[in-house]
Amino acid sequence: MSTTPSGLPKRLVIASRESRLAMWQAEHVRDRLRALYPDCEVAILGMTTLGDQVLDRALNEIGGKGLFIKELEVALLDGRADLAVHSLKDVPMELAPQFALPIVMKREDPRDAFVSGRFASLDALPAGARVGTSSLRRAAQIRHRYPGLVVLPLRGNVNTRLSKLDSGQYDAIILAAAGLKRLGLADRIRAIVPPELSLPAAGQGALGIETLAGRPELEAWLAPLADPKTAAEVAAERAVSRVLGGSCRVPLAAWCVSRADGGLELVARVAAEDGSAMVEAVERCPQADRASAERIGERAARRLLEQGAAQWLGSS
Ligand SMILES: NCc1[nH]cc(CCC(=O)O)c1CC(=O)O
C-alpha cells in the first residue's frame, strides 16, 4: 500500500455490495475514515454478489452464509480493495485463513421490526394473516408464538421487501430495525418486535470490517472505528452460532447485552422451523472481555444442545 510521507495510506478502497443498505454502510465507514484521515483518499468499489442475484429462492436453499461476501473477498485478494464492510449477521462464523475481521463497529438497534400498513403489531394480526420473512429464525419464532399466522417467504433487499408489502402480497413483514433506520425508513416501523417474541440473529445491527489477514498497519488505521462493547456482545453471540454450526440455514437466535455492572448477559434460542418447539438458554458473566464472552456463548450452545436443539439444526 503506498503511503503519504506521514505514513498514512494515500488511498483506501472499500468493497461493498451495491444494495442501498450495503452502500449506506460503506459510505458510513468511508465518511468516518475521511474524517480521521483527511489526506487519504477513500473510495468505494460497488459489486454484486451471488446472494444479490439469486432472488427467486430462499437464502437457506442457495448455500446460506458467505453468499453475500465471497465476491468482496475476491476483491481483497486481488488487491482491488483494502477492506470490505459487512452486516455482521451475514458474515460466516469461520473465515478462511487469508482473511480477518479486525473491527466490529458500534451497534445500531439489534431488534426486529414489525412493518405493516394496517396492523400495529404481531399481537394485532388476526388468524390467517400473512407475514413475510425469509429468515428461518424469524419464521420459526413467529410460528411458535402465533401458530395461527401464515408465515410466507420474502426475499430481496429492504426496498424490494417494502414494495412487496405495499403491493398487498403480505399483511405484515418483519425486517431488521437497523436496516430501516440506516436507510431513513424508521417511520415504516410500526412496532419493535420484543425479543421475547423474536430474538435477533447473532451480530444483527452491527457492522464488521474485513481485511486480509496479517495487515497490522491497516488494522491500526481502522482501530478508532472499533466499539469494544459491541465486539464483546457479538463475540458471545457468534460463539453460540459457531458451536451450533450456525448459518442462515438454521433457526438460531442469539442476543447479548452489556450490563450496567460491566458484565454480559446472553440469551440464545433454537426453534423448530414449523414452530412446534423452541428451547432457550440464558448465560451471564461478570466481565466483558472476549474470552469470557466466547465462554458464555459456548455454554449457551451446550445448554441448547442438552435441550435437544440438534434435531432442529439440520444435518449441516
Ligand atoms: N439478511 C439481510 C440483512 N443483513 C443485515 C440486515 C439488516 C442490518 C443489520 O442487521 O445490521 C439485513 C436485512 C434484514 O434482516 O432485514
TrEMBL record:
Entries under Pfam families matching the protein: Porphobil_deam (PF01379), Porphobil_deamC (PF03900)
Enzyme's top EC category: transferase
Any GO BP annotation: protoporphyrinogen IX biosynthetic process
Domain of life of the native organism: Bacteria
Metabolic or biological pathway, per its Swiss-Prot or TrEMBL entry: Porphyrin-containing compound metabolism; protoporphyrin-IX biosynthesis; coproporphyrinogen-III from 5-aminolevulinate: step 2/4
A GO molecular-function annotation: hydroxymethylbilane synthase activity
InterPro entries for this protein: HemC, Porphobilin_deaminase_cofac_BS, Porphobilin_deaminase_N, Porphobilinogen_deaminase_C, Porphobilinogen_deaminase_C_sf
Assigned GO CC terms: cytoplasm
S-(dipyrrolylmethanemethyl)cysteine: modified positions: 248
Transmembrane segments: none
Cofactor: dipyrromethane
EC number: 2.5.1.61
Cofactor note: Binds 1 dipyrromethane group covalently.
Location of the Porphobilinogen deaminase N-terminal domain: 12-218
Reaction catalysis annotation: 4 porphobilinogen + H2O = hydroxymethylbilane + 4 NH4(+)
Porphobilinogen deaminase C-terminal domain boundaries: 232-305
Keyword field: Porphyrin biosynthesis, Transferase
Subunit structure: Monomer.
UniProt miscellaneous comment: The porphobilinogen subunits are added to the dipyrromethane group.
Family: Belongs to the HMBS family.
Function: Tetrapolymerization of the monopyrrole PBG into the hydroxymethylbilane pre-uroporphyrinogen in several discrete steps.
Name of the protein: Porphobilinogen deaminase
Organism: Zeimonas arvi
Phylogenetic classification of the source organism: Bacteria, Pseudomonadati, Pseudomonadota, Betaproteobacteria, Burkholderiales
